[in-house]
Amino acid sequence: MNVPTSILTLIIGIVITLASGWVSQNNGLMPTAAAAEAVEIDRLFTAMIAIATGLFLLVQGALLYSLFAFRRRDGDETDATPVHGNVSLEIVWTAIPAMLVLWLGIYSFDVYQSIDSAGTMGSTHMAHQHGGMETVVAAGEGTPAPSDPVLLATQGNRADGPLAQAIATEVIDPLIVNVDGLQYAWLFTYPDTGIVSGELHLPINRSVTLNITARDVIHAFWVPEFRLKQDAVPGQVNHLNFQPTKEGTYPVICAELCGAYHGAMKTRSIVHSQTDYQAWVDSQLVAHNSSTTAVAQRSDPSPVSVLEQHATAMGLPDHWPDHGHEHSLSTLPPDWLEASSLDPSGS
User: What is the C-alpha separation between 91 and 133, in angstroms, rounded?
Assistant: First the structure.
């Protein structure tokens, strides 16, 4: 039974489309999505995988068909029919890839703009926070308790979803973190608290702005689970804006060859619940205050402690007379007086 070419072409098209869709949704190539921006990136990646799979099946299918359908038969010594070209076919296989590439370029630029990770020096635009607000759901019927608030990113003054009717809102500024890259480590400074850490600690569901720079050579800040990467350039501040949406510990990787130990330039990004993040901040502040007090005590010793330190080094008695009593050089060891060219009278 001969199947009409149109029907066969339709069946092949359906099979290729279904296979491409399945592969794009089940490729398992992407890590956990832990930021709001990851959704848009994953959609773009899914579309690219679907197109690439479809083209691969189409080209390889045509190649395999040609190998069998047009192979040389046994006993056939004739020349093949000369073909000088097919203008219609060449237009089709040029126009379709051109349109796909153009569409992917426009779609990619739209995603790039929507997450606002251009990193222009001095940029202050917030990704997924165009209105500069976050909505906090108040306690009440059908809403979470205030001990575990749900923060909803909004665009403008509008909130999507059934929680848009929240009866109370609160403006929350984004968390600012200054990121310094240096061979071969990352330093994270929190200007609002003065905390400096070797790990990036973030609260869940709160917008974050990273001000990224470098102290020596070019580095690249990359957290695969956030789907975001930004260069760290000496003398320039680049911005990265995102919103963590999943608690966990994720690797921070330098994605720019920066020296011999580039591969070891790694640390962690830890996304906490609101409560755990505040507990971390409090613990860091306590540790910072304790160390500051200890340093202040060491840097401003009393005169008595200074004298006792020098006295011990010179072999003097461990205990000096009380401050209220008159000191006498006669209490000093004779060998110390002789070495000092002093006599007991003090002359």
Answer: 50
- Cβ partners under 8 Å of residue 37, min gap 6: 115, 117, 127, 128, 226, 227, 228, 242, 243
pLDDT in tens, 124-144: 433 433 333 343 333 333 333
Could you give the count of Cα atoms lying within 13 Å of 184 in the half-sphere of its Cβ? 14
DSSP one-letter string for 185-224: EEEEEETTTTEEESSEEEETTS-EEEEEEESSS-EEEEEG
Q: Are 243 and 173 in contact (CB under 8 A)?
A: no
- Structural tokens at position 56: 């691969």
- Give the whole-angstrom CA distance, residue 57 versus residue 61: 6
**CA dihedral sign, ordered 320, 321, 326, 331:** negative
Which has the minimum average pLDDT: 84-93, 242-251, 282-291?
A: 282-291
Looking at the chain, the whole-number percentage of residues with pLDDT higher than 90 is: 43
User: What pairs with residue 176 in β-bridges?
Assistant: 209
* Residues 35-54: tens digit of each pLDDT: 988 988 999 999 999 999 99
* 3-state secondary structure (DSSP) of residue 7: helix
In 3D space, the residue among 188, 263, 261, 271 whose CA is nearest the CA of residue 225 turns out to be 271
SS3 call for 300: coil
Whole-prediction pTM value? 0.63
Q: How far apart, in whole angstroms, are the C-alpha atoms of residue 122 and residue 239?
A: 8
Q: Does the CA dihedral 67-69-75-81 come out positive or negative?
A: negative
